[in-house]
Amino acid sequence: MSTKDWLEKDYYKVLGVSKDAKPEEIKKAFRKLARENHPDAKPGDKKAEARFKEVSEANSVLSDPKKRKEYDEQRSLFGSGFRFPGAGGQRPGGFGAPGGPSMEDLFRNATSGNQDISDLFGNLFGGTTTRRTTRNPRRGTDIEGEVTIDFTQAVEGTTVAMQTVSDAPCTSCRGTGAKAGTVPRVCTTCQGSGMKESQTSGGFAIAEPCPDCRGRGLVVDDACPDCNGSGRARSTNTMQVRVPAGVTDGQRIRIKGKGGAGENGGAPGDLYVLVHVRPHPVFGRKGDNLTLDAPVTFEEAALGAQIEVPTLSGSRVRLRLPAGTPNGRTFRVRGKGVRKGNGEQGDLLVTVNVQVPGSLSANAEAALKAYADAVGPTNPRSGLFR
Predict the structure, then answer these.
(1) Which residues pair with 252 in a beta bridge?
(2) What CATH number does the domain containing 55 carry?
(3) I need a labelling partner for 17 at 20 to 30 A (CA). Which of 33, 203, 254, 363 fits?
(4) Which backbone phi and psi does 58 adopt, to 5 degrees?
(5) What pLDDT is recorded for position 77?
(6) Are 319 and 309 in contact (CB under 8 A)?
(7) Which residues make beta-bridge pairs with 291?
């Protein structure tokens, strides 16, 4: 069976199974189609006979793990639905034409070391290929930093000064890596491309960074003493970083283009800032809402009252407690929380904390006993024993 057949025929589609089908699924699909199209079941039916041969051919490849792996690799390399010249309209003497090169000839030449695999495509379409001799752009490295801000700054947003350390082109050699008065030479191994092709066991080529120039495309014979030939040096930079409103403790902020400088015209990397938020002595946070515990007296909770509570901005708001307010009840003050991304603001959640006096005067104790006598005997724990 030729390589051309493998690349032009979708055996998975022939059997009606997915590309990740298990061997049991392939076997089951083949048996079903073979029974339906077997010449004994449909004698004289040329279409059924052709269909039977087609599913048999597909099964012979997909049921063999080694053949299936090779089939998948070749179709992955060339792409499904690939069609070779020769199906019609090819040039005289071209691929597929009488006297022209066959698919096997091209692969044999490419895998025997006489021809680079990249040239295979040029031969197929009558073109030529050239090697890149220019150095590829390299994106700069990403760098990380940390800042610590106050609770209020996290809620409202702030700008902080931050010092970063990253790689930058060496100022002594201007990024070449070569000692002053000398220049690096083009790597002869990769011809300046920074990449080297190696052949796999299947006869295909894989590109990887050149081991001699480490992907730079240039070789330094006399290294710069300041950067030891790397062309890079440590650079310290102080910048103003804008921390957006609503940031949370432990959040990581990405600032695009503020990382290490790129090489050969490559884009700079990004800066990632890890934010630490100092806790507030009064306020807490729950998503976009601020939280506050408000102490109240027993009489305020029992009789009802109007109390004042602070907001993060420093202003005060009045809160009405209805009579009989239980301990732990939460009240919502709208619009006094964290500003959201859409411009709206969260709320302030005020939780009532009823305070029990640690000691009572004689008059207060007598008044409290009088209250108990007036209320009568009660047991708030009776429900626990039902």
Answers:
(1) 274
(2) 1.10.287.110
(3) 203
(4) -65, -40
(5) 65
(6) yes
(7) 284, 349
Nearest to 141 by CA among 164, 173, 172, 174: 164
How many structural domains compose the chain?
2
Q: Which residue in the block uniquely carries the two structure tokens 């009064």?
A: 282
Q: Which two tokens stand for residue 154?
A: 């996290």
- Cα→Cα distances 178→133, 175, 184, 262, Å: 19, 8, 6, 18
Determine, yes or no, domain membership for 321: yes
Mean pLDDT of the chain: 79
Q: What separation in angstroms does the CA of 124 have from each of 67, 109, 121, 361? A: 24, 13, 5, 104
| Other C-beta atoms lying within 10 Å of the C-beta of residue 32 | 13
Q: What is the DSSP string of 137-204?
A: PBPPPPEEEEEEE-HHHHHH-EEEEEEEEEEEE-TTTTTS-BPTT---EE-TTTTTSSEEEEE-TTS-
What is d(CA 177, CA 229) in angstroms, rounded to the nearest whole number? 4
Q: How far apart are CA 152 and CA 280, in angstroms?
A: 8
Output the furthest CA–CA distance in the chain (Å, rounded).
121
Q: Which has the minimum average pLDDT: 54-63, 83-92, 191-200, 375-384? A: 83-92
Q: Which residue has the higher pLDDT, 62 or 214?
A: 62
Determine the average pLDDT of the residues in 123-136. Answer: 45
Residue identified by tokens 């022939």 is: 14
**Which structural domain range is residue 356 located in?**
283-374
End-to-end, the C-alpha distance of the chain in Å comes to 83
**Residue pair 189/219 in contact by the 8 Å Cβ criterion:** no
The tokens describing 108, both together, are: 């044999």
Q: Is residue 327 part of a domain?
A: yes
**Rounded distance between C-alpha atoms, residue 64 and residue 60, angstroms:** 7
Rounded CA gap, 283 and 336, in Å?
A: 12
- Phi/psi of residue 231, each to 5°? 80, 0
Indicate the helix (H) or strand (E) that contains 277: strand 271-277
Specify the amino acid at residue 165: V
